[in-house]
Amino acid sequence: MYRLISTASALAVTLVAGAAVAQDFRGLARQDLEAAHAQLRDNHPAAVVQGAAGDRFRSWLDRGLSDAMGKIGQVQGGDSHAYLMRYYANGFRDGNTAIRPTFEGLGPFFATTWPGFTTRWSGDHYEVSYVHPGLRGAPPVGAVLVSCNEIPAEDLARTKLDLWEGDLNTEAGRVRTAPYLLWNRNNPFATGMPQFCKFRQGRREREYELKIQPADPASVEAAYRHSVYTPNATPLVVESVNGRPWINVHSLADNADWAAFYGQVESQIDAIRGPQGAVIDLRGAGGTSLNATSRGYGLANRIWTPEFTAPRQPEAGSITYRATPANRQWFVDTLARMEGDPRFVQESGPIIEQTAAIVAAFDAAIAAGQQTFTLPGRPAAEDTGAANPVQGQIVVLVDGGCVSGCLDILDLLTRLPNVRLAGSTTGVDSIFIEPTIVRLPSNYADLSYGHKAWTTRQRADNQPYQPAQGLAYTGNPADEQAVRTWVGTLFGG
Predict the structure, then answer these.
(1) 90, 250, 268, 482: least surrounded by Cβ within 10 Å?
(2) CA 335 to chain centre
(3) How many whole angstroms separate alpha carbon 493 and alpha carbon 490?
(4) Is 327 exposed, middle or buried (0-12, 13-18, 19+ CB in 10 A)?
(5) Which residues contact 57 (CB under 8 A, 6 or more apart)?
């Protein structure tokens, strides 16, 4: 077996928040892992909810802590601290559980060294997606990775990417992390850079010696953008593509310009509702804020009408809460912020009443010594017979970047008539919803997890949306012109 070129950094001092700070990051990692474990053990609803989702959580809670603790000796600084925190959080296989650095981390376009080319995930294999201009002796674009240093590609990916960069048990996790397979991202826990890799073209296999070289930011960003769809700097905009409105919603963030975007939609509503059809592009539309779902519902209500969409919303069912003082305090603090905002008091009285009722339910459950309590969701809206104002087909375009609130939006859109889901498999999320965020003792990381259990959600735990046969895009997701041309064919054009 060929040797590995080490990826470990020799630095014990890391740049955090713009200043060089010498820290005992091994001690901080131990402290943060223990604190995250205790917070999840004592307050996460999965600890007391029955079923596969709860079983998955409980199986990793202690085992994962022991596993991560065994790797603390390799922590060298802020970046490796962040990797170890991510490893523990990702082990729950729950997209709603995360530990993120509070400082500016490595980012998606970071590498210290690379072989001058990169890979993407294409259905069931890794293939070359980009070769740096002028690089000689590299495998061509489209070549399928077979093995590196005699290690099968799948085994290499599991060792180097799974949990460290994302969840390889999901299609979305495969796609997003694929470019990093042959990059050095300064992760001392993963395998090093391979020296030789074997690729297949047709029936022919050939081994290449990798030309490991420093990675400049512009080159690796270009490589990543050639491999994974990455939204541009204007995530919310309505365009005309092939004679149809193309409604771009590539972010559900609170700080996006929603007022201007909704204004665009309203000003073009006749065209959007026309017989030629329209596209709602939700690729990359991640969003974990409490407002993410309402942003998408606001869009749907403008394209259709609130009277038409409300009775077609998925049933709310019931929500299970874990009755702990810390969870109660979250709602107490939330209620105080609501009541302290005069405009919110004026416009959202029912939400304040509902939150106060939840606090009262916490008080009753804790006083009775109950571990959990369950409250019903909102009642279903009555169908008033409102007409569908949309005449043509609506193609909803998705990819693995559609997660969290985006999935909630799909729960509604896929129930509307003449809507077809196209693109590639979405991300997943668990039944543990609405994030609570806890600062860990080091101040270098925040723990985020869903503090409610939506046990009756109609979409199953960790269940993605997958476009039906004929609506799945199999080309290069980063080739925007090819994607738009393909979408045009779905309308018969």
Answers:
(1) 482
(2) 28
(3) 7
(4) buried
(5) 40, 44, 46, 47, 92, 94
The residue whose two tokens read 């294409």 is 122
Name which of 397, 119, 134 is nearest 285 in CA terms: 397
Q: What residues contact 180, with CB distance under 8 A and at least 6 apart?
A: 111, 160, 161, 165
d(C-alpha 83, C-alpha 189), whole Å = 8
pLDDT of residue 289: 61
User: What pLDDT, on the 0 to 100 scale, is given for residue 16?
Assistant: 40
- Sequence-separated (6 or more) residues with CB below 8 Å from residue 45: 320, 321, 322, 372, 432, 450, 451, 452, 453
| Model confidence, pTM | 0.90
Place of tokens 């048990």: 169
Query: Is the predicted pLDDT of residue 14 greater than 50, yes or no?
Result: no
Per DSSP bridges, beta strands 117-121 and 113-114 are: unpaired
Q: Which two tokens stand for residue 88?
A: 């523990």
Rounded Cα gap, residues 170 and 461, in angstroms:
13
Nearest Cα to Cα of residue 317 among 246, 385, 411, 396: 411
Residue 176 has which token pair? Answer: 């997003």
- CA distance readout (Å), 241 to 18, 57, 105, 280, 488: 43, 45, 36, 12, 9
Q: Are 282 and 398 in contact (CB under 8 A)?
A: yes
Contact 359, 335 (CB under 8 A): yes
Helix H, strand E, coil C: the string for 300-322 is HHHHCCHHHHHHHCCCCCEEEEE
Q: Which residue has the tokens 């046969």?
A: 469
Residues β-bridged to residue 395: 279, 420
- CA 123, CA 51: separation in Å to the nearest integer? 30
Read off φ and ψ for residue 472, nearest 5 degrees.
-95, 130
Is a pLDDT exceeding 90 seen at residue 374?
yes
Closest to 358 (Cα-Cα) out of 376, 342, 337? 376
Tell me the C-alpha distance between 255 and 232, whole Å. 16
The dihedral of CA 101, 104, 109, 112: what is its sign?
negative
Closest CA to 394 of 415, 370, 425, 364: 415
What is the arithmetic mean of pLDDT over 57-72? Answer: 98
Q: List C-alpha distances in Å: 486 to 267, 410, 476.
A: 27, 21, 11
Task: Give me the pLDDT at residue 254, please.
Answer: 85
Q: In sequence order, which ranges of 70-152 are alpha helices (DSSP H)?
A: 78-90
- 233 is written with which tokens? 């700097």
Nearest of 466, 475, 418 to residue 279 by alpha carbon = 418
Per-residue CA distances from 464 to 173, 410, 429 (Å): 12, 10, 8
* Cα gap 452→324, rounded to integer Å: 12
